[in-house]
Amino acid sequence: MDFFGKEMYEKGMEFQKKMMEQYMDGVRNYNKMFTEAVEKAEGAELSDAFDVEKMQQNTMDMMKSAADMSSSVMEFYMDAYKDASEAWKSAIATPAYFKQPEFAPLLDRMNFSADAFRKLFDFWNEFISSSMQFTGDPAEASKKMMEFSNKMVQDMTAGFFKPFGAEFPDSMADSLQSLGKTVLSFYNDFMKPWTSRQEAFVDNYIKAAGGDKEGMTNFIDMTQAAYEESFGKMLRMNNVGMTREHAAVAMQFADACVRMFLSSVEITAKMQTVMKEAGQETFDKVREMMEDEDKSVTFKDFYDLWIRVNSAAINKLYNTDEYSVFLNEFSGNAYDFKIKYDEFMERMLSGLPIPTNSEMKAVYKTVYDLRKDVRKLKKEIKDLRKELDELKGAK
Amino acid sequence: MGQFDVKGSAEYFINYMNGMVKGVENMVNLKNEDILTGELEKTEVLAIGKMRLYHYTPLVKKSALKKTPMLITYALVNKQYMMDLQPDRSVIKAFLEKGIDTYIIDWGYPAKEDMYMTLEDHIEWYMDECVDYIREETGKDKITLLGVCQGGTFSAIYTALHQDKIKNLIEMVAPIDFSTDEGLLFRWSRHFSVDKMVEAYGNVPADLMNLTFMCLKPFELFIDKYVGLGASMSDPAYLENFMRTEKWIFDSPDQEGATLREFVNEFYDDNKLIKGEFVLAGKEVKLENISCPLLVVCAKYDHLVPPAATKPLLEAVSSEDKEFHMFDVGHVGMYISPNSKSEIAPIIGDWIVKRS
User: Fold this and answer.
1) Which residue in the set A45, A294, A296 is minimally distant from B5, CB to CB?
2) Are A240 and A231 in contact (CB under 8 A)?
3) How many CB atoms within 10 Å of residue B338?
4) pLDDT band at A3, cuts 50/70/90?
5) Fewest Cβ atoms closer than 10 Å to its Cβ: which of A83, A280, B112, B165?
6) DSSP string across A326-388
7) Sequence-distant (≥ 6) Cβ neighbours of residue B49 within 8 angstroms
8) CA A351 to chain centre
9) Is residue B104 within 8 Å of B131, Cβ to Cβ?
10) By the CB < 8 Å criterion, does B13 face chain A?
11) Do β-strands B3-4 and A296-297 pair in parallel, antiparallel, or remain unpaired?
12) Whole-prediction pTM
C-alpha cells in the first residue's frame, strides 16, 4: 500500500508546507511594501510614498503564488495518477498474476490427492493380499513398504509442491487473451472519471491559476469526484482471502487519508480565497482613507482595519449554508481518518500483550453499568431504611 | 491627499516594544502559583464519581444568612471557578456578601471510563443527589437553583422535573431554544455529525473543543487578543488578570461522549426542549411545569449563546413571577468583566435575596 501510504502522506505534508511558505511570502511582500512606503512617506507626498508599480508587482507575485499553488495541486494529482498507472502496469506485467487463477492450483491439488489416495489404496490391497500369503520374510515386506513410501514422496515433490501454474494448457491461451482485454477495458473504465474530465480539469486549472475563485472550487470539486469514482471505490472494495479483513482495514485507512487530505486542500483554498479578497478590500480602504486630505493614518489604524476587514470576511464565509455543509464534510472526513487510523493501529498492535482501545471500551461500559447498578441498589437500601424507621416510629 | 502618520506610527511601535520588553520581564517574574483563581474558602461536602459539591464559607454571620440556600450548576465545558476568578470581580463573593448560602457543583475532569455518562446521569443522578444533600443538610424543602450556560439547560430540565424541590430558578446565558441562526454554533450544528465525532474520540478532547471555539473568531482570538496583551502586559495587574483568564479558558475538561452526543442531537439538532418533546429517564420534560419565580439573564454580545436562544424560556414556563435582564457584555464578560461584581451580580443577588 505504498502508493497511498507513507509516500502520499509525505507529498501531502510537502504540499501544505509549500502552500504555507508561499502564503507567508505574499504576506511578507505586502509588509515590506508597506514598511517601505512608511519610510518614504516622511516629508513626501503619499502618492510618491506608495510605489504603484511595486504594488502591481507584488500583486503579480501573489497571483504567481496562487498559480504555483494550483500547479502544486496539479503536480500532486498527476504524480498520484502516474503512481496509480505504474501500479497497474506492474500488476498487469507480472505473468504470475494471470497464472494464479484460484481454480488452477486447486484442481492440481485435487487431482494429486485423488491420485495419491488411489495409489495408497492399491498399495494397501497389494500389501494385504501379500500378507495373506505371507511367507515369513519380514525384510521383504519392509522393503516393499519403503519403496512405496519413497515413490509417494517423489510424487508429492513433483506434483503437490510444483510451482503454481508453471504451464498453461493451450486451451487457456484464448481465455488469457480475453482476460487481458477485460482488464484493459476495466482499466479504461477505472480512469474514465479522470480522462473524461480532462478538458474541464485543464480549463479550471487555468482559471484557478489566474485567481478565479470558481475555477479553484470547480477544480477541487472535480478532483474529489474523480477520486470518489475511481481510487476511492477501489480502496473501499471488498477483499478476498484469509487476510481480507486486515486488507480492508488498511485500504479503508488509506482512503480516509486521501479524503481528509482533499478536504484540507479545499478548506485551505476557501480560506485563501477569502483572505485574498479581504486583502484587496483592506488595500482599497487604505486608499480611501488617504483620499481624505485631513486624514492622518498610523500603523495602528491600518492594523485595526486589517483585523476588522478580515474578521468580517471570515464571518461572512462562516455564515453561509454552503460553508456549514462543507464544514460538516471536512470534519466528517477528519473523524473518519481518526476512526480508520485507530482501527488500523489496533490491528497492527494486536500481537502485543496489551489491551486495545476497543477492549478497554468494553471494560469502561461494564464499569459504567455496574456503577449504575450500585447507585440503584443504594437508593433501594435508603428507601427501605426510611420505611423501616417509619415503621419503628409507628410502634 | 491624506497623510501617513510616520511619527505617530513610530511612536506607537516604540511604545509597544517598550511595553513588551517590560511585559516580558513581568511575565518571567509571574510564577504559576501566583496566578490564583477561585480563592474564596469552600468545603467539599459531597463526592460522587468525579463530581464534587462544594459549600462556600459564608461571609456574613449565621443570623444574617438568607433562609433559602442556593446551588450553582455550571456547564460541562470549562470550570466553575470562573464565577470566582478574580477577587475584585467575583460574582460568588457578591452573593456571599448578600448572605446567600451558596453551593456549587464541580463536574470534575472526565476520563475515558466516563465516556458512557449521559444527560440522565448528570441531571437525575448527580444534580439530584446535590439538591437532596443541600435540602437535608439545611433542613429546607426547596432551594434556589442558578444555572450557567449548559448548566442552565440542565437546571431548566431539573426544575421541570422536580419543581417541588426548587424555590427560585435563575438562568444565566443558558441555551433553551436552539432554533436561532444568530450564533455560529447553532448554525453549524444543523449539518454537523456529532455521532462520528464521538465514535472517533469517545470523550471529545478539550483541545478540540477549544480550537472550535477559537476558530469562531480566528482573527480576534488567535491574533488580536495576543497583540493586545503585548500592548498592556507592562502593567503587572493587567498581566495577572490576563493570565488568570487564560488559565481558566484552557483549563477545560474533555467532554463525555454520550452526554455531548445527546446534547447536540436532542437540542441543537432537534430542538426538543423548547418543543416539549424531550424525554429524560422515561419522563417527559415540559418547561410549562416550571412555576417558580424565574430570572433570565442574557449577554448582549454573546456569540456562543445569543439572547435569542435564552429568552424564549420566559414564554415557555408557567411562572407568574419572572424577570429578564440583558447586560452589555459578552458570554464570558458576564462573570469576569469589571461590571460583573459591581452591576450584574448585585442585580441577580438582590433578586435572589428578595425571594429567599
Assistant:
1) A296
2) no
3) 12
4) very low
5) A280
6) HHHHHHHHHHHHHHHHHHHHHHHTTTSSS--HHHHHHHHHHHHHHHHHHHHHHHHHHHHHHHH
7) A371, B108, B114, B126
8) 24
9) no
10) yes
11) parallel
12) 0.71
Q: For chain B, what is the HEC assignment?
A: CCEECHHHHHHHHHHHHHHHHHHHHHHHHCCHHHCCCCCCCEEEEEEECCEEEEEECCCCCHHHCCCCCEEEECCCCCCHHHHHCCHHHCHHHHHHHCCCCEEEEECCCCCHHHCCCCHHHHHHHHHHHHHHHHHHHHCCCCEEEEEECHHHHHHHHHHHHCHHHEEEEEEECCCCCCCCCCCHHHHHHCCCCHHHHHHHHCCECHHHHHHHHHHCCHHHHHHHHHHHHHHHCCCHHHHHHHHHHHHHHCCCCCECHHHHHHHHHHHHHCCHHHHCCCEECCEECCHHHCCCCEEEEEECCCCCCCHHHHCCHHHHCCCCCEEEEEECCCCCHHHHCCHHHHHHHHHHHHHHHHCC
**For residues A77 and A69, what is the distance between their CA atoms, to the nearest angstrom?**
12
Please, what are the domains in chain B? 33-354 (3.40.50.1820)
Q: Which residues of B are catalytic?
A: 149
Q: What is the pLDDT of residues B44-83, one digit of tens each?
A: 999 999 999 999 999 999 999 999 999 999 999 989 999 9
Average pLDDT of the residues in B144-152 = 97
Using 50, 70 and 90 to split pLDDT, how confident is the model at A56?
A: low
Only one residue has cell 502496469, namely A89
Give the gap in angstroms from C-alpha B171 to the nearest C-alpha of chain A: 28
Measured between beta carbons, the chain B residues lying within 8 angstroms of A371 are: 49
User: Is the minimum CB–CB distance between B304 and chain A shorter than 8 Å?
Assistant: no
**CB-based contact B113 A364, cutoff 8 Å:** yes
* Cβ contact A19:A268 at 8 Å: yes
B301-333 per-position pLDDT tens digit: 998 999 999 999 999 999 999 999 999 999 988
> Which residue is it, cell 513410501?
A149
Cβ–Cβ < 8 Å for B153, B175: yes
Residue showing cell 473518519:
A336
- Calculate ∠ Cα B86-B89-B95, nearest 5°: 110
Distance in angstroms between the alpha carbons of the first and the last residue of chain A: 81
Any idea how long chain A is?
A: 395
